[in-house]
């Protein structure tokens, strides 16, 4: 843990001499914040509530006693250890505060340096341990939710495989049967012309091919979900232009009323499975579309890629609302989302980065609030056959 992230001591005393003495005794040992008044201390605590591990206050101060200050501080930083420095004349009030749980410990003036140092050491050790416990608990909760999601994903993949199998078989049969139908109709059209029928006959092969491609993609998605749930890694290469074209088709319904979606790049293959690449691109394009709300301008999403000697740089750029600087790294944390309840799971960007990293690539985000976001993916070029 970085020293600047360790819990600190906040010492509050309206006597400037006492503040200097405290700093002289403990400034080299602890990270210390000093405050000369209760109101100033509360403001500082609000600003640095996650940093303060111990609050040590003098009891007699103008406007607010130390007990009152620590009681108010408890609502701002409930995990901080609260201690008082008091004179004998204030002993009863302090003892009552300890009994009520407002204060964890007190010291009588003049305090003993070694006793106070030992108490601060113990309190900060406890604060650090509690911080680690909360971090571990947070990670465990995320792991548990992700494990549950993995089980659900495996179940979805299993349920998908049956219908996808029927769909693929029926599409193959339809393709075979329609070939005969088209041949028959085409032979009789010259004798009985019908422009609508002729147009339909011309369009049917492309429509059936799209249907077959969609069925195959669904099958690959189901296999990919099952492989990910089992922890398997599916190697492969992908034609970037083909995958981008298919991802754009899949995203069309989400993007249609929000933005103009374009793609641009030369033919190239990358070391990345086509299903995984489509999953990443679809996530990024849908995220970009959802970022268009409230901008007051025509939305634009561009998927572009450039080829370099060793790798390919693929970018999804939008002119949406952008992401605040303090959230730009957090958006990659599992289960974190800036979207309203019911929209998104907080897993899209996390999964995208994980998939790209597993393939030996890199995913980088740059965003300007109010102007838009660029997400740049760098992937290895596939060797020529």
From TrEMBL:
<dbReference type="Pfam" id="PF02518">
    <property type="entry name" value="HATPase_c"/>
</dbReference>
<keyword id="KW-0418">Kinase</keyword>
<protein>
    <recommendedName>
        <fullName>histidine kinase</fullName>
        <ecNumber>2.7.13.3</ecNumber>
    </recommendedName>
</protein>
<feature type="modified residue" description="4-aspartylphosphate">
    <location>
        <position position="58"/>
    </location>
</feature>
<keyword id="KW-0808">Transferase</keyword>
<dbReference type="InterPro" id="IPR011006">
    <property type="entry name" value="CheY-like_superfamily"/>
</dbReference>
<dbReference type="GO" id="GO:0000160">
    <property type="term" value="P:phosphorelay signal transduction system"/>
</dbReference>
<feature type="domain" description="Response regulatory">
    <location>
        <begin position="8"/>
        <end position="124"/>
    </location>
</feature>
<dbReference type="InterPro" id="IPR001789">
    <property type="entry name" value="Sig_transdc_resp-reg_receiver"/>
</dbReference>
<keyword id="KW-0547">Nucleotide-binding</keyword>
<keyword id="KW-0597">Phosphoprotein</keyword>
<dbReference type="GO" id="GO:0005524">
    <property type="term" value="F:ATP binding"/>
</dbReference>
<dbReference type="Pfam" id="PF00072">
    <property type="entry name" value="Response_reg"/>
</dbReference>
<feature type="domain" description="Histidine kinase">
    <location>
        <begin position="155"/>
        <end position="383"/>
    </location>
</feature>
<dbReference type="InterPro" id="IPR003594">
    <property type="entry name" value="HATPase_dom"/>
</dbReference>
<dbReference type="InterPro" id="IPR004358">
    <property type="entry name" value="Sig_transdc_His_kin-like_C"/>
</dbReference>
<dbReference type="InterPro" id="IPR036890">
    <property type="entry name" value="HATPase_C_sf"/>
</dbReference>
<dbReference type="InterPro" id="IPR005467">
    <property type="entry name" value="His_kinase_dom"/>
</dbReference>
<dbReference type="GO" id="GO:0004673">
    <property type="term" value="F:protein histidine kinase activity"/>
</dbReference>
<keyword id="KW-0902">Two-component regulatory system</keyword>
<keyword id="KW-0067">ATP-binding</keyword>
């Amino acid at each position: 843990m970085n020293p600047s992230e360790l819990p600190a001591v906040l010492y509050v005393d309206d006597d400037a001499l006492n503040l200097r003495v405290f700093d002289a005794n403990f400034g080299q040992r602890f990270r210390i914040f000093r405050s000369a008044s209760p109101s100033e201390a509360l403001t500082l605590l609000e600003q640095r509530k996650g940093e303060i591990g111990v609050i040590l206050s003098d009891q007699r101060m103008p406007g607010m006693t130390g007990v009152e200050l620590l009681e108010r501080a408890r609502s701002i930083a409930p995990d901080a250890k609260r201690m008082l420095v008091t004179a004998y004349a204030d002993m009863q009030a302090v003892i009552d505060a300890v009994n009520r749980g407002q204060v964890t410990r007190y010291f009588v003036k003049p305090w003993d340096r070694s006793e106070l140092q030992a108490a601060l050491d113990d309190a900060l050790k406890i604060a650090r341990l509690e911080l680690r416990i909360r971090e571990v608990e947070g990670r465990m909760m995320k792991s548990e939710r992700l494990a549950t999601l993995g089980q659900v994903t495996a179940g979805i993949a299993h349920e998908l495989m049956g219908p996808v199998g029927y769909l693929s078989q029926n599409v193959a049969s339809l393709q075979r049967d329609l070939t005969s139908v088209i041949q028959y109709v085409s032979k009789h059209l010259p004798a009985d012309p019908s422009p609508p029928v002729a147009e339909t006959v011309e369009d049917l092969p492309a429509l059936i091919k799209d249907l077959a491609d969609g069925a195959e993609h669904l099958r690959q998605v189901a296999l990919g979900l099952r492989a990910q749930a089992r922890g398997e890694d599916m190697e492969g290469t992908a034609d970037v232009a083909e995958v981008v074209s298919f991802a754009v088709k899949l995203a069309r319904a989400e993007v249609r009323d929000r933005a103009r979606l374009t793609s641009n790049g030369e033919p190239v293959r990358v070391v990345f499975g086509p299903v995984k690449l489509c999953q990443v691109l679809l996530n990024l394009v849908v995220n970009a579309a959802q970022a268009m709300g409230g901008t007051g301008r025509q939305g634009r999403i561009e998927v572009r890629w450039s080829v370099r000697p060793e790798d390919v740089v693929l970018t999804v750029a939008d002119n949406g609302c952008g992401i605040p600087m303090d959230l730009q790294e957090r958006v990659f944390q599992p289960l974190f989302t800036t979207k309203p309840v019911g929209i998104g799971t907080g897993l899209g960007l996390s999964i995208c980065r994980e998939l790209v990293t597993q393939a030996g690539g890199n995913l980088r985000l740059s965003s300007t609030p109010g102007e838009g976001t660029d997400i740049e993916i760098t992937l290895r070029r596939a060797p020529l056959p």
